[in-house]
Amino acid sequence: MKQSEIKDLSIAELQEKLSQLKKTYADLKTAHTISPIENPLQLRSVRRSVARVATEISKRDLQ
Q1: Which of 10, 43, 45, 50 is the most core-located residue (most Cβ within 10 A)?
Q2: Is residue 3 a contact partner of residue 51, using CB atoms and an 8 Å limit?
């Protein structure tokens, strides 16, 4: 997800997206442990998306 897409979401949508991304990351990591996934760079992009969403949530909490 791009930062511009994240800024347009509400807090509830961000919380939902964060839980979805964390689940996706856990599933990808498990699949990669069992047998190497086709594109291991997916792990990096999902992990960074999790960080972007979490950062936006904490940023809004501080305001």
Answers
A1: 50
A2: no
Residue entry with tokens 């939902």: 16
The model carries a pTM of 0.90
Rg (CA), the chain: 13
pLDDT tens digit sequence for 18-44: 999 999 999 999 999 999 999 999 999
Among the listed residues 28, 54, 24, 55, the one whose alpha carbon sits nearest the alpha carbon of residue 41: 28
| d(C-alpha 18, C-alpha 1), whole Å | 11
CB atoms within 10 A of CB 20: 13
